[in-house]
Structures are given as structure tokens and as C-alpha cells.
Amino acid sequence: MPSARPEAASSPSFSFGGTGFLLLRPYGRWYPAVPVWDGPFDWDPLFYDQFYATWEPPLPTPDMLNPALPKGVLQPGGHVSGFLYFHKLRASEGRVIFAQDVIEAETRERLATIRIPLILE
């Protein structure tokens, strides 16, 4: 996740975990203990520069970033646990659906779409 504001990610104690998770190479400097994925991966290298520009200091805090899941690839049979953070969701929005396509990294084939209803309180 860290990019435009590396000072916000100064804490080295990342707390996401799992097995068979390979990190997207550009994030390797922030997660030196996590193996990296060298295969294809569609991503926007400027996304976080644009995204973090909308956060008002002191966000994101180290407590938010430590368990945050970075971009990466989950190998067959692997698992990973951590947090996803949603910026600017408000309880007044009521129900929100988190939707994410599951992509086969080598072929870029869409395998499924995960849809998780979220209730904001």
C-alpha cells in the first residue's frame, strides 16, 4: 500500500499473515520478509499517489497500515488474512457491496467475482 507517503508507513511491524501469498514486486521494500511475485500483474503504479492525496493527515496511521493487505498474488491452496480499508464510506450510505474479480495471474482469466455485503454502522 505505501507509495506517496512512505512516512506514514514507517512502522516495520506488519501484521497481515498467511501462506502462499506473493507480494507485488514494487512493494518489496516495505515488506522485505514477504516473497515477491514475478509474473504478470495488472496494476496502476500511480493509484496510491492519487489515493493518498485524498487522505487528510494524520491518516493513514501505522495502526491502519500494519494489518492492511498489500497487492499480491495468492497461490492455489494459499490463504492470507488482514484488513481492507475503505476511504470515505459513511454510515449514512447504509449497505455497501464489496466486489472483487478473482483473476488467474498467468492467463488473466476471470475465475470468479467475490461479492461481500457490508453494513456500515
Please tell me about this protein's structure.
- The structure is a single chain.
- With 121 residues, the protein is mainly β.
- It has 2 domains: 1-81, no CATH class; 89-121, no CATH class.
- Helix content is 8%, strand content 32%.
- It has 2 helices and 5 strands; from the N terminus they run E-E-H-H-E-E-E.
- It has helices at residues 47-52, 62-65, and strands at 17-24, 36-37, 72-81, 95-103, 110-119.
- The strands form 2 sheets. It has a 3-stranded mixed beta sheet with strand order 2-1-3, with no helix packed on it. A two-stranded antiparallel ribbon has the order 4-5.
- A hairpin with a 6-residue loop joins strand 4 (95-103) and strand 5.
- It is globular.
How are the SSEs ordered, and which strands pair?
Elements lengths: L16 E8 L11 E2 L9 H6 L9 H4 L6 E10 L13 E9 L6 E10 L2
Parallel strand pairs: 1-2
Antiparallel strand pairs: 1-3, 4-5
Main attributes of the structure:
single chain, 121 residues, mainly beta, 2 domains, three-stranded mixed sheet, two-stranded antiparallel ribbon, 2 helices, 5 strands, 8% helix, 32% strand, globular, disordered N terminus
In short:
The chain is 8% helix and 32% strand. The protein is mainly beta. Residues 1-12 have low confidence and may be disordered.
User: What sort of overall outline do the alpha carbons produce when their principal axes are compared?
Assistant: globular
Count of discrete domains: 2
- Find the count of extended strands (DSSP E, 2+ residues): 5
What integer value in Å does the Rg equal? Answer: 15 Å
Percent range for β-strand residues: 25-35%
The run of helices and strands is: EEHHEEE
Low-confidence region ranges:
1-12
- Across the major sheet, the strand order is 2-1-3
pLDDT average, as an integer?
A: 78
How does the helix and strand content classify structurally?
mainly beta
**Helical stretch count?**
2
For the sheet with most strands, the description reads: 3 strands, mixed
End-to-end distance, in Å? 25 Å
Q: Report the helical percentage.
A: under 10%
